[in-house]
Every structure is written in structure tokens, then in C-alpha cells.
Amino acid sequence: MKISKNNLIDFIGVLLIFLFVLRFISLLRGETIIHVFWLCNHVPLIMGIAILLRSSFWLTAEISFLFFGFLGWIIDYSSKMFFGIHILGTTSYLFPITDPVFFYITTTVHILTIPLALIAYFLIKKQEPSAWKGALIHAIVLIPFLLYFGGQYNLNCFVRPCADWVPNFTLYPLAIFAAYFLVLVIPINYILVKISKKYQ
Q1: What distance in Å separates the CA atoms of residue 170 and residue 172, rounded to the nearest whole number?
Q2: CA–CA separation, 3 vs 14, rounded Å?
């Protein structure tokens, strides 16, 4: 049976929302609900809704916002699984594995979110060069929570580095915010648009 493009896009949107629900339940189960403020834990919901609404702007914004965090998580996860070390420290909370359900749900959500979102992005085929502004709005809304809970949880590695080898200093939060957008989010937004135009 042939699946139409629209049905596939809708399926991806629903699947991302389902992944968010799974992750949310796992956080409730582990009494760590505050971790919903990590990008990887709530962005699938925003992406899923954006896909169902065919909002390429917000989908592009969230891919650009999450992509580097996703890449960092995959690198750290792979380094631990294959070499037994944490390069970045972003997955240290998963090891040693004491709760297999939490481990597998967390792993599944992290591995699938960006690939699914990229598939939907290229199926929708609408370029949004200014989508980084959506990511900026998301960040501005998120920052008060990161600062308030940062002392105990260091959500999104915003208050201080997650890796010991990364230098920490007074203006670290401001520096990481500026660097993340100027060096990562805006360029990723640009690259997505260029690739989409090339294969449209």
C-alpha cells in the first residue's frame, strides 16, 4: 500500500508527539520532571505540533536549535558505549544503567528526534531563512527556568559546562548563549535552507 506524502508527514508529527509523551512519563516515573526543560525533552512536542500544522518556520527553528545538542549527545553516548568514557559529559546521567526503561526511552527519543524532523522538513519543502528568530524566542522563554534551576540541575549546560575540560567563568552563560546562536543555530538554519533549495 502506497503512503501519501501528507500521511507520512502526519505520521512523523504524531510519532514525535508520542516520543515526547513517552519521555514525559519516564521523567514522572523517575521523579525528575524538572528535566523536561532540557531541549531534547520538550522539543519533540514542539516539532510534532509544527509538523502537523505544516509550520516550516517552527520546525526549522527547532531543528536549528536542537541540532548541535543532538550531535553532542550522540557523540558522548557513543563514546561511552564504545570506549567507556564521556567526552562531553552530556549522557553521564544514564550510566551506570540502573533503570532499563528510563535508559531505553531516553536513548530512543534522543536518537530519533532529529532524523524524523529532518525527514519531515525535506518533505514539507518550504525554506525559512529567518527561522533562527523562532529559536531565539524559544531560548528567551527558556532562560528564566535555566537560571532558576541552574544551580542544582544545570539544565542544557547553560549555567556551567557539562564537561570538565570546558573552562568555566563568570560570563559563561552569556558567552555560551551568544556562541550557540552565532556559531551554531544561525549557520544550521542557513545550511538547511541551502540544502532544501538545492533539492527542491
Answers
A1: 6
A2: 15
| Pair 91, 76: CB distance under 8 Å | yes
Cβ atoms of residues 200 and 126 within 8 Å:
no
d(CA 6, CA 13): 11
> Can you tell me the distance from the alpha carbon of 151 to that of 68, in angstroms, rounded to the nearest whole number?
23
- Would you call 195 exposed, middle or buried from its count of C-beta atoms within 10 A (0-12, 13-18, 19+)? middle
Residue with cell 531560548: 139
Domain positions in the chain are 5-198
SS3 content of the chain, % helix, strand, coil (to 5): 75, 0, 25
- Could you tell me the three cell numbers for 168? 568555566
CB 117 within 8 A of CB 62: yes
As a three-state string, the secondary structure of 85-143 is CCCCCCCHHHCCCCCHHHHHHHHHHHHHHHHHHHHHHHHHCCCCCCCHHHHHHHHHHHH
CA atoms of 186 and 163, how far apart (whole Å): 24
Q: Which pTM value belongs to this model?
A: 0.93
Q: Are the C-beta atoms of residues 48 and 13 closer than 8 Å to each other?
A: yes
Q: For 44-102, write each residue's pLDDT tens digit.
A: 999 999 999 999 999 999 999 999 999 999 999 999 999 888 888 888 888 888 888 88
The one-character DSSP state at 185 is I
